Amino acid sequence: MCMLHSKGLSVSKQKEFRLPKHVKPINYKITLTPGIKVTTKTGDSEDVVYKFTGREEVKVNVLHSTDRIVLHSANLEIHSASFVTKKGKRLEGTVTLDPKNEFAIITFNGIVPAGKGKLEMSFTGIHNTKLKGFYLSQWKGEAGETHNIYTTQFESTDARQAFPCFDEPAMKATYDVQLIVDENLTALSNGRDIKTEKLGNGKKIVTYARTPIMSTYLVAFCVGEFESSEPVWQNGKEIRIWSIPGKNHLKEFALECGAFGVKWYEDFFNRPYFGGDKIDMIAIPDFASGAMENTGLITYRDTALLVNKKTASYAELARVCEVILHELAHQWNGNEVTMDDWDGLGLNESFATIMAYLSMNDMFPEWHVYNEFGIDRAGAFALDSLKSTHAVEIPVSHPDDIQQFFDTITYEKGGSLLFQYIQFAGFNTFRTGMRIYFQRHALGNATVSQLWDALEEGAKVDGKDIPVRMLMDFWWKTAGHPVVSVSEGDKPGTIKVSQSKFQFLPAGDKDVWPLPLHIRFSAGGEVVEKKILVNEGSTTLTLSDKPLDYVVLNAGGSGFYRVDYSDGLRNKLLADVQNTLQIIERFNLVNDSWASVRARSENSMTATEYLELVKSFSTETDANVWAVISGALKTVYGLTSGDHRQAFKAAIRETVRPVFDKLGWTPKEGESVHTLQLRGQLIGLLGTVGSDKDIRKEAAVQFDKWKADRNSVDPNVVPALIGTLSYIGDQARFDEFLALAEKAPTTQEKLRFLGALGNFREEGLYKKAIEMTLSGEIRTQDAPFILAGIIGSEHAGETAWDFMRDNWTKIVATYPDNAVPRMVSACSALDTPELQAEVVDFFTKNKVKEGDMAVAQMIERLSVNVGLRESETPKLTSYLESSAKALASAKA
Ligand SMILES: [Zn+2]
């Protein structure tokens, strides 16, 4: 699954949640009739729900005789259950439910003998609106009429909401699916439709090809009015992009990515796609995550699949490309070879994360996506710097807990650890190991240890002796990451290196990581690179017999550790930072330094020292490096007030404006996507917190131009225009943005405007924006993230927080379960001691479903933020006073 971009709580292994192992499913024959409207009248009010009915035959292998069969079922009414033995004897079953464990326990009126047999059941379920199970999604036509879609999201444990099943990843089976639907509707499932028969009552029954053997969470059904692109054939697979009608012009880019991905992965794994000869990818108007890799029927939220190639920003295109390549990677990593259990979720998600980058780097070499991966990795570093983080390998427990682990650690930290290995061992060596892994575990399940073994063998095949299991296991199973301190050694040409766990609030942990160090240094004018595996807590390394001109630890930037240089070594790097360090190394330097500010330990950098460091980046032109600097500047801005804030605004303009002036408003021929992006970023920074009058004025001019002709302004600048104009906008601008959202030609554009409504500074306007997140005007898949954005803002955060508390019950009932914890995460921005007390009190009294880990992390982050404000504000104040004086005297 692709999560949306945004515990160390010990979860004990609770065996009672596991199914007994003596009944194994082989094949499911499932027939479902979705979309049955049921109206209940109470007095004058009418309540409408949509239901589905189903029957299924599950061929099972019973390992020893028993009088009962236990399988998963949730929110289903099971009408009948019987068992037909191999000899044709039918046993009638009585169903009792265990709602806590989501079990249906079927007790038979006789003994089920060992051997094969058939479990038959009929049942009814509800199409819920919480975006999981077999759920209801709706869209409005031009005349305002409502159209229904019945669609599924089963990962992790919601297949059981659509049909009773053995809902664990290792309980693999094949599926023969039939759907009975209205004749005018399109019905899709994992396999190709092989037969359609009219039933004469306005309905048709569609039969699909048998699926390969796979886990329940990968089964999918989509029923509605859908329109598909023309197909593209790649290596004998038919790829189509589906959506609600009228969006075929937004599918070209997704088709290109899909075709590229299928070819790339078949080549990488050296084996064909296992799921058959078609891959449908469909945009669903209401979707809880980014996308879901159901075999042969991949479902997406609209913005992760449909995009206008000409008017989209680079970020929007990159997002679509990444998500598609992520889901396609899963067809191998996850669908064909599946984690043994949910504790191996990283096997699925860390892999899909890094595989998407590896393939995207080949599809668009000019994008230099590994630099961009630095941003993802920075998110993982930040979360992993909390005591409440978790290891990539996770303990399995109740279904509610599994959902929590679809987070930055499982995706981006795990992906970063693999990237660290790939960079250390080499891409080809990694690929050799992956091919061994796939040959060995095809169509089955595997544990992470089995993967390390295969990678280690792959390294041997390539003549390399790398202790992969030792190296990877420790990183995979240990929460947190090290900071490596480096200083000059006693003799010339040597350095002292020591590691300790990096935490914003140190807990005194004493882990020592096996460190794959990648070092680049210059000695006597000669540049040398070295890869060294260090297993000690501290050591001295001899790099050269000559004195060092400079030394870069984490050269190439792929190591999942932070570096803390001594002042002397840092100054050597900063002396000519643009030429000494690669982009990703500069990124890591500013990112590690900012983390050091936030940690506020004895040797930490202060915020004012950071501002001095930023001055060495006055000629920086990389968008990713600037993303870190901008983020830090905005945080520092939030620590200032009054005259000091005015002084800081001036300082921002002084730093940023020269960089922007070199770029100018108009892109030059042949500019890289990163320069295009940088322009947008700098306009956004100057136009908002920088209060740059020229930029604000020109933003309005450019925006008018864009309204007249969408192609007249670079798409990467448009979000900054919207950000700036909402920041300074009045009621008229607010109304204009609302209208533009209403008639936006793409969902990306619609969300840009909706997302900007909370930026307006007038109280009446941002209050209206806050209310809209719960008024039904914004889809529940988007509303929690828009509200989170406002909670995280300085001007409206407290109002949004009050709104969230006042409407908590309705919020929990309305928003998708997996979105509530992500929204709650934004409360870490409420960084005054008074608000902190309110936040802690509220979440002590109100538990968040699937969210205890997110809440613990938010509260810890909040305490880091409050601490930062308290310790850094006074230092900043005197710093700004003295720099304002210096500025005044310079002007005088
Ligand atoms: Zn995924």
Ligand names: zinc ion
Rounded to an integer in angstroms, the radius of gyration calculated over CA atoms is 28 Å
In CATH, the homologous superfamily of the domain at 23-317 goes by the name: tricorn interacting facor f3 domain
* Low-confidence parts: 6-14
Q: Could you report the average pLDDT, rounded to the nearest whole number?
A: 94
Strand order of the largest sheet: 3-6-5-4-7-2-1-10-13-12
- Dominant shape: globular
Helix content: 40-55%
Class of secondary structure makeup: alpha+beta
Q: Helical segment tally? A: 27
CATH topology of the domain at 23-317: Immunoglobulin-like
- Estimate what percentage of residues fall within beta strands: 15-25%
Please state the second-level CATH architecture of the domain at 23-317: Sandwich
Please provide the count of β strands.
29
Q: Please summarize the sheet with the most strands.
A: 10 strands, mixed
CATH uppermost class of the domain at 23-317? Mainly Beta
Distance between the termini: 60 Å
